[in-house]
Amino acid sequence: MSKLGQVVEAVEKYNKFVLDQVRRARTDEPFGRDLLGRWNDIKAKIPITRAPTGLPLPRLALPEIDEPGEIARYLFGEGLPGEFPFLNGAYREMYLEPIREVESFEKNGESKEKKTGKKIPQVEEPTRLFSGLMLAEDTNERFHYLTRHQRTHRLSTAFDGPTLYGIDSDADGVFGKIGEGGVAIDTVEDMMRLYDGFDLGSPNFSASMTISGPAPIIMAMYIAAAKRRFGPKVVPRLRGTIQADIFKEVQAQNETIFPIEPSLRFLTDMVEFTTREMPRWYPISISGYHIGEAGSTPVQQAAYTLSNGFAYAEMFVTRGIPVDQFGPRLSFFLDCGLDVEYIALARVSRRIWAIGMRDVFGAGPKAQLYKLHTQTSGRSLIAAEFKNNLTRTAAELMLAYMNATNSCHSNSADEPFTTPSEEWIRLAAHGQAILLEESGIFKHTMNMLSGSPGMKAVERAVEAAILDEFREIERIGGVLAAVEERYQRSQIQNAAHKYEQQIYDGTRPIIALNKYRNGSDDIPEVKLARTPRKKQQLQVDRLAKFKKKNADKAKRALDKLAAIVERGENCFPALLEAVEVCSLGQITGRLQDVVGRFRPMV
Amino acid sequence: MPAPIRVLTAVPICDGHDSAINTINLEFIRHGVEVVYLGYHRSVGDIVRAAIQEDVRAIGISSYNGGHSEFFGAVVDLLRKKGADDIKVFGGGGGTITHDDAAMMKRKGVDEIFFAGTSLEEMVEFVHQHYGKARRKRARPKSPDQELAHKLTDIEDRAANLTALSARVSKAGSTRTDPAAVRTKSPRAARVIGFTGPGGAGKTTLIDELVLRFLNKNRQSRLAILSHDPSVVGRGALLGDRATMINSQNDRVFMRSMATRGQAGGLSPATHDCLALLARSGFDYVIIETVGTGQEAMPFQKNGIVDLTVLVMNPDYGSRLQLQKIVMLDLADVVVVNKSDLQRARTAHTEIEQRLEQNRRDQQLIDTVAKRHRDPGVDRLFDLILGGRDGALQRQSGSDRPRTSQRDVPTKKRRKR
């Protein structure tokens, strides 16, 4: 049985354990009394906060139960926020306003200033800004624009097509793609330009890089660029995330450049390096987003994301990386659309991950956390009457925060036609601020909307469906076997087809598309961000200069890299050396000579 | 009934958005179009080369990652440069292509751009209306490959007409083409290797891995591949082998994808003549791949042009008894157990070995994992094919030098039978 099969058993066993505890709490009197005492303690310690209107509220809302069996069901089955099995949240408090006024309010303002001389937020802003356009300096400028009012600088980077496929801007036939849909990165020098002016070693800075196929090479470039700017001591202080999710590329997004097995090997090489040398870095973002965007059902999205995660964990353990070392450095990325499953999709995922990591992999508390970044659904946005997309995104944001996501990105309403423009990016970010800061929905009380009968019903149904998917993958022989026989890919494509069919026959209403149409299908006049030819030429010229300057050194570095890969050693240190003198395309090409190219699955 | 419309579809380089094109492909096929699907992340050069070799009526490009104006323009330009501007270009990209872009792309020579909201019916209708009429007289081909491609089209069209005719004249009519057109006796240099086997055994991947070895071994050699996918009369077909065959998208490889157009047995009514033509068109090797076949299939038996037959098996063939029923196990020169990394592979090897021993012929049995880069099993198969090549040359030159190994030329024996 693969680890995935064991996870299914572990969840079933845990669910039975919860029922046993409920029964015991009702029959074993000391145990029940003990639970009731604990419950009363928890309740007594909950601080009271006040809404701006003066209304007092607990900072943590709990179900109104006083019967030991139900208390057991809650504490073991769901857990308090921040406690196993983490159904209600990875942390005790999220999105809440700082506590500053709690006591001071009671004491009539007496101690108000004492604690809040400087407002230090308890949680960091969950908003993430995704950007990438034209050349490195253009994206850099956008980053500075986006972060000018923010305390913390959390930059999320999109790359252009050539970069995502690991090829250079001077490759045959890619000229028009340079800087389109993301930033063009060919060399370590581009990487230096990209984050120029930001303090990469600061706790207030983190970089997120949305790239998977060539992720180890791009990661090496980032490290090399940081070292060039801040010296070697910056490496352990680097914070950020690189996507590096090979499974979902093969299952859904098609940006794979090496065959699956060497791709996974290079990934593991990188993870081995970063978990040891860069303890604050997230070297993989296990992503359901692209699976969802490719058309999966929400359950498929959650199930494939989790099972991919468990497969990575198994791989890293096999390599000899301790689970408590890599576990806390895994993070997840989900899509949030408008289907009813999204009411609890991330909640259930968090619970299954925690149980699997604890009971199958023996992970400690920090390695049990399903730390989640959510993005609202791009697929749910449409061109017809595109301003409706603001409403769609707002509803999705609401669902994402009801799931206690750790961070969130809201899509721009103009996304169906273009790289988002500044106006719509701002409105999208404001959507989050309105929900979290302006409205009282999330800022006063944890668990504000948890635990409704409907939500619980969705949780049960979604969990059962996810476990069914796990059983099917296990039957095929585990995640890798299923990937190789295109199981997930076929399921996703089938679901996508059904979705389109439902739009076509009207059983899935899309407002202004198949319902309440106003009759006009014209794309609204939106200004499109296009990369000027002059800039594209500049990128090609710069690359030529870099290649010329480093020609001899590049050859030696590539020979060394190839030899190390042939020998089967961890190639990441050699990559770190190679990126100093080689371009992305040179490295990809050489690695493909050794391990082959990815053969698309059709 | 006229021959089906053939179009090529692809997604541009650095673009993995293939869900739209997958849907459109299926819709085209449903409406009688034969679609040569090249896959995603494909360069201008790959697209134009494939379009010329396949001699399609049009190229449909689905682009979602920007740079479409340049890309579509480059495809049109290269077609023109290659003297293939009778191959038309159309495409779409949802909301990523604006009306202004589309106008500019049309000025560059693109026939049509479909915008978001265009129904699949409209696209099918467009293809039938614009690319469904018979071709006008064609300009003189600009390259040997183009000339060859045109001739193959003529053979296929003629076969289609004959099929229609014989269907009208007699329900039991033979689909064989005019015997006068068959010139198998003419001198030829190419060694013809036939690959067959059940669907999903990995034939396409295996051939592509062999192609990579051919190309690396001899920097001058040229290859042709004739690949087949099933279709019924009057319907379309998905000709998708090119999407898998990444190494075969090369100027030194001439590849042609054919639909079987209703013929049973794994090949098309036009195969025989197309193969004969390819065999005397200056290639060093011609590879023919059948559709996934059933137990009774013996696609190469009557053909006579094929020098070496390779049966590619999947370890999961069912019970041992099933092996007795597979006719090609008697006829193949080489049997390959691909996917030999699967659990069942060892058992499969043993059982097939025993089965071959009954035949008392020098049949070769090779285990491969074609999906693996530089697989030693594929290397062995490659050496075997090359060895056979030497043998063939020796036969032609009348040399009676002892061959290195009798086992290297398994075809010889079959010829005698």
List the helices and strands and how they pair.
The complex is a heterodimer of chains A (602) and B (417).
Chain A: H1 3-27, H2 29-45, E1 48-50, E2 56-58, H3 68-77, H4 101-106, H5 112-115, E3 129-131, H6 136-146, E4 153-158, H7 161-164, H8 188-194, E5 205-210, H9 215-230, E6 240-242, H10 246-253, H11 260-277, E7 281-282, E8 284-287, H12 289-293, H13 298-319, H14 323-326, E9 330-336, H15 345-359, E10 372-376, H16 388-402, E11 407-409, H17 422-438, H18 453-476, H19 479-484, H20 487-505, H21 533-549, H22 551-567, H23 572-581, H24 584-595
Parallel strand pairs in A: 3-4, 4-5, 5-6, 6-7, 8-9, 9-10, 10-11
Antiparallel strand pairs in A: 1-2
Helix pairs in contact in A: 1-2, 1-3, 1-15, 2-3, 6-8, 8-9, 9-23, 13-15, 13-18, 15-18, 16-17, 22-23, 22-24
Chain B: E1 6-10, H1 19-30, E2 34-37, H2 44-54, E3 58-62, H3 68-81, E4 88-92, H4 99-108, E5 112-114, H5 120-131, H6 144-169, E6 191-196, H7 203-217, E7 223-229, E8 237-239, H8 241-244, E9 253-259, H9 271-279, E10 285-289, E11 308-313, H10 320-325, H11 328-331, E12 334-337, H12 345-359, E13 364-367, H13 376-397, H14 410-416
Parallel strand pairs in B: 1-2, 1-3, 2-8, 3-4, 4-5, 6-10, 6-11, 7-9, 7-10, 11-12, 12-13
Explain what you see.
The complex is a heterodimer of chains A (602) and B (417). Chain A is of the alpha/beta class and 602 residues long. Chain A has three domains: 99 residues, no CATH class; 140 residues, no CATH class; 271 residues, TIM Barrel (Alpha-Beta Barrel). In chain A, the strands form three sheets. Chain A has a five-stranded parallel β-sheet, with helices on one face. The radius of gyration of chain A is 25 Å and the shape is globular. The two termini of chain A are 29 Å apart. With 417 residues, chain B is of the alpha/beta class. Chain B is built from 14 helices and 13 strands. In chain B, helix 3 packs parallel to helix 4. At the A-B interface, helix 7 and helix 20 of A face helix 1 and helix 3 of B.
